[in-house]
Design brief:
By secondary structure, the chain is mainly α. Among the domains are: about 140 residues, Tetratricopeptide repeat domain (Serine Threonine Protein Phosphatase 5, Tetratricopeptide repeat); about 60 residues, no CATH class; about 70 residues, Serine Threonine Protein Phosphatase 5, Tetratricopeptide repeat, CATH 1.25.40.10. It is about 80% helix and about 0% strand. It contains 21 helices and no strands. The longest helix has 29 residues. It is globular, with a radius of gyration of 28 Å. The protein starts with 7 loop residues before the first helix and ends with a helix. The N terminus is likely disordered.
Length: about 400
């Protein structure tokens, strides 16, 4: 592995720790990497490999902590994301596994295995659209592999089964056999991605059986696939109202009214107005929930809430700027490249303030490599020019002093 240690002793220590690891001496490797992290606490590769050694020793909590530290120091430390995804998949925490693997994929999109792993994780979660998307990505990268051929065969068969089962469910519904239709849909939908109409029909079946939470999930899936159907949004709003989620219901009614083919628009408008009067004091609490989600790393939940609030900005103008700020922050925190740039900027500033100008220049140059048009690019360029002038002044002073001594 290539690193840039400050001196040869750190390089020797790194090489020694790595040799222990490669020879299966994980306890010795761990001890040596711990010493290296103590001597050079900003070396992300040392923390990454310390986590690897802990993982081999089945010290999983410490492994997770060290990999997270590697990411904190270098948000582009791809293998730390990969390892965390593997760890959470092993723990059957599939949603967290997909988060870290998605980060790895954004850094190394040509890695075949991560597409396949994401497909497996999303399938375990029951998110067949995402699973198929990643399986197809894997198959496009390695179409001749055994796994790709097996996946292609499997999904062709699954699609045929799904098409047949949907017809069975529709026949059951036409005969009034609601329970039978539900059983068929429940067996069918996890097999292969289905249309918005199928999700919508299944949601209606669940709603009739008063399974409101499951019905909402199916209506939301239908909305993702057909965002132009106002009827789906109205049904979503009705369930949110039942669940006493006023802001979410407002969003769904508002979104339905924005569509040109909204049925019974006057009734929907009246319901929107009445609901707004009843829950206008909930905007602040909803914004706090979204902000808390962002702080705790629940990015998908935060993004959904902030976007819904932004849709409703006309109803609560005072929150618009805060929502936009949080959406911008969310975009930065979700992107490994932007996180890395932010880290390099702060490290550059810290080094500059402490008078370590060579290090500061290195960090600032890395920022510009990642974000040449970033919001702080002009400021960073100015910092580099100032540092170069300061270094020049120091050199000039030293030369003058030397001449006087002579």
């Amino acid at each position: 592995m290539s690193i840039s240690p400050e001196n040869q002793s750190l390089q020797d220590l790194f090489d020694s720790a790595l040799k222990h690891y490669e020879n299966g001496q994980f306890l010795e490797s761990k001890s040596t990497f711990e010493k290296l992290c103590e001597l050079s606490p900003t070396m992300s590769e040392a923390w990454l490999n310390l986590g690897n050694a802990c993982f081999k020793l089945e010290e999983l909590i410490d492994a997770e902590k060290h990999w997270q530290k590697a990411i904190e120091l270098n948000p582009l430390e791809a293998n730390a994301y990969l390892n965390l995804g593997n760890l959470f998949f092993k723990r059957e925490m599939f949603k967290r596994a997909t988060y870290y693997w998605e980060q790895f994929k954004s850094i190394k999109p040509r890695s075949k295995s991560v597409w396949l792993n994401l497909g497996l994780a999303y399938e375990r979660l029951g998110w067949m659209d995402k699973a198929l998307e990643n399986y197809q990505g894997f198959m496009s990268l390695d179409p001749q592999s055994k796994e790709a051929r097996e996946l292609d065969k499997r999904f062709r068969s699954a699609k045929a089964i799904v098409d047949s089962n949907i017809k069975l469910a529709q026949n059951a519904l036409s005969q009034g056999l609601i329970t039978k239709a539900r059983e068929v849909y429940e067996k069918t939908i996890p097999l292969y991605p289905v249309s918005a109409i199928t999700h919508k029909t299944f949601a209606a079946v669940l709603y009739q059986q008063k399974e409101y939470k499951d019905a909402l999930e199916q209506y939301l899936l239908a909305h993702q696939k057909d965002p132009e159907d106002p009827g789906i949004l109205i049904n979503i709003a009705i369930i949110y109202e039942y669940q006493k989620k006023g802001i979410d219901a407002l969003w769904a009614y508002h979104a339905a009214l924005e569509l040109p083919n909204c049925p019974d628009a006057s009734r929907v408008k009246k319901r929107l107005d009445d609901l707004y009067q009843a829950c206008q004091n909930q905007f602040g609490m909803y914004l706090d929930e979204a902000t808390q989600d962002l702080r705790n790393g629940r990015f998908d939940e935060a993004e959904t809430k902030f976007k819904r609030l932004y849709t409703l900005k006309e109803l609560s103008p005072s929150i618009e700027s805060t929502v936009l700020d949080n959406l911008a922050q969310l975009k930065t925190r979700k992107s490994p490249i932007q996180r890395a740039a932010r880290t390099y900027y702060h490290l550059g500033e810290k080094s500059r303030q402490e008078g370590r100008y060579d290090q500061a220049m290195g960090f600032f140059k890395k920022y510009l490599q990642l974000m040449p048009e970033g919001e702080k690019a002009a400021e960073v360029q100015q910092r580099l020019e100032e540092i170069q002038k300061q270094i020049g002044a120091v050199i000039s002073t030293m030369l003058s002093s030397g001449k006087q001594d002579g």
